[in-house]
TrEMBL record:
InterPro entries from the UniProt entry: TPR-4, TPR-like_helical_dom_sf, TPR_rpt
Protein's name in the database: Tetratricopeptide (TPR) repeat protein
Keywords from the UniProt entry: Membrane, TPR repeat, Transmembrane, Transmembrane helix
Transmembrane regions listed in the UniProt entry: 21-40, 131-150, 157-176, 188-218, 230-250, 270-293, 305-324, 330-351, 363-384
Organism lineage: Bacteria, Pseudomonadati, Verrucomicrobiota, Verrucomicrobiia, Verrucomicrobiales
Amino acid sequence: MPKSSPKKNQPAASAAPAPRRLPEWAFMLALLLLAFAAYYPSLNGGFVWDDDSWTANIEPMLRDGAGLWKMWRDPTALQQYYPLSGTTFWLDFQCWGWWTLPYHVENLLLHLAAALLFWRVLVQFQVPGAWLAAAVFAVHPVMVESVAWITERKNVLSLVFFLAALLSYGRFVSFWHSEDRAAGGWRAYTAAMVFFILALLAKVTAFAFPAVLLVLCWWRRGSIRWRADVLPLLPFFAVAIAFGLGIAWLETHTVGASGPDWDWSWPQRFLLAGRALWFYACKVFLPLGLSFIYPQWTPDAGSVFHWLMLVSAVGVFVVLWLARARLGRGPLAAACLFAGTLFPVLGFMNVYGMRFSVVADHWVYVSTLPLLALMAAGLVAVMQRLQHQGLRQGLYGLLLLLLALQSWRQAGQYRSMETLWRSTLEKNPGCWMAWNNLGNLILQQGKIDESISFFSKALELRPHYAEAHNNLGEALLRKGLFADYQKELDRVIAEFQSAVDLEPWNAAGYYNLGSALLQAGKFDESISRFEKALSLKEAYDDAHNNLGVALVQKNRVDDAISHYRRALQLRPSNVEAMVNLGAALLGRGQVDEAVALYEQALKLQPDHSGAHNNLGMALLQKGRAPEAMQHLQRSLELRPTNAEAHCNLAKCLSEEGKFEAAIQHYESALKVRPGYGDALYGLGVALSRTGHVKEAVQQYQLAVQSEPARADARINLGNLLLQLGDVTAAVDHLERAVELAPGELLSHNSLGNAYLQARKISEAVQQFELALKSSPDNWVVLNNLAWILATSQQASVRDGVRAVSLARQSSKAAGEENPFVLRTLAAAYAEAGQFDEALQSAASARRMAQVLGNTSLAEAIQAAMQLYQAKTPFRDVQ
């Protein structure tokens, strides 16, 4: 190949790669220090928006080699098929976990590596001001988004391999050697192909590489030759097209870049492209007003301004083409490289981020290089007119310091998610996504009312925003106590339903709707929504967990346990699933496993109020009451409004006979959660044990109103109503209890007693018989039935022989020293005609009653003994 001559359309051969008195190592060190200073505010920042797509959301893949292999073999495993970028995050997780400082430092070091490679490329091309172009690139504010944003690791990583491929290919085609000597041959060609593929595997924006090389060939030689220039690049074009089409398909069908947000006609897309070219060029040359999310544009085919942008952009290329003889090919080549590398994000292809804004700083990261090279070359040419070298260097330094200062300010917004969104809203108050995402952060901080206002603002700006509907529903759900609970809960469900209607493919929408329905007690509906969420995304640990909660409410405990275990398999650190699995196992009597789960949950989250509460109840079952009390009290310290913990602590106190203290905690639970059935029931028990029968009746009545299907409350209410003489009401509640709990000992026995007082003897016998079937050895039931069979005034009911048998069983079960049972046994003997045995049992009963101080019982037995002495059975007043 003939040697290029240094004409106007060629770079100056005498240009130095760096200032004459500054060694290369000193330049690199200075660049490193300046860049670290510029990006310092972001280095200690946490993860921000979308970082979770490459970190927390793919944690199962980051844990082991199987996950790493999945990144490479499954094109849909990651947000996009960028397995090389995914591999760097896999390595980061293995080394650092979620410590973000190394993530930020790696991004910055990769960016600096790209800057140095850019410098070497320009030096090899003999571009004047190569060092200045590289330095400006290193500290330019537009680059901050790619460097400070962890998720854009793919951007900086791809550019490193892109430039490495360019250096290698330059050796192959002798871009920077004499044309009669090939510097690298096919080894350089192979290296270029390997680096190019690695660049694509980091981010597909490198697909423009072969087109870039053709432009460079034209720039260097003034023509493009088929054999020397095009033919070697055909494999590169084939690889680029294959990757580009594949990623474009994934962007549309997997990432979600389809729908009304991208419904632009081709004229509109051209209008977007024209305006975007001017926008990006202005930001490169005058980096002011930068924003994480820019205001969205609406292309208007009827707008003169929009057409002017397009026509003028095309006009620039026409002018540069016509003026190439005077200006050289460099400016036109730079413009072509700028527009060509931007092509995928100019609106001609659907990119998911365009849902929020059709322009973004990180999309122009690679495309800035030709403009910066052109700018540096032009600036150096102008500055050469200044004779004083110190002045020139001072002006260069001032430029870099100003850019670094602006980058420092820009990097500060990446310190935290909240800082990022607040900064975005200052510059772009119409950014509905920022309102929504900031609301999410505020909600996580417990500022529910403020978050509701942010979500409402997002919906005001974009009424059909499914995620904002979801989040507003979540905020309303968390608000807790409503003036009209059911009305507000209906609103929550409506918000979630709107989200599902707008995005029926979104598993999170069905999960949230299911959670609201679960809160509303609509368990069947909630189960169907959770199952739908899992059909869309099986590896959804929270959906498995909440489905388990709903299944427990339907008494499908085995199914619930399976889903809890699946949730923990997907995310072993899911504390809620641990706590819920523990509760299910505790209900199954697997106390030790439940305790182990609660203890593990508290290791992961020591301040989890629910785990302390449940562990307290489990320890109580193991007889470790002091430890149980400690955990229940700790639960209340962490969350004084934990109604369940108040209720459980009250149960512990009741079991220790501390009813007054128990009453206080039951009342605290009811202040937090009015209508809480367990608390109303427990308060009724504690009040009745302290002699406050009427107050206890009121609490049981409230418990029944709150939970009409609660049999235990109806049983206790019925028994107390019997004490107060309200037999009719007692019978009503106890009959309902039997319907709710058929075959239950207490319900049948209590109803039998009520029927006795209502003079329904046959019905009473029937209930006692049913109670006896439930518990054949229960001495109370045996005694009650024996008493009726022995003392009933209805001859058809009496059965002395069976009464004796039942009374003997009762006496044996009760310990043979119970005066009530001995009294019944005496009556049974008398009914059977065994009056001597009757007198003997009655005497024992009277003696035991006297020992116990029960004078009225002793007197009643004495009266019955007079009948037995007269050979007369006892008849109860029924």
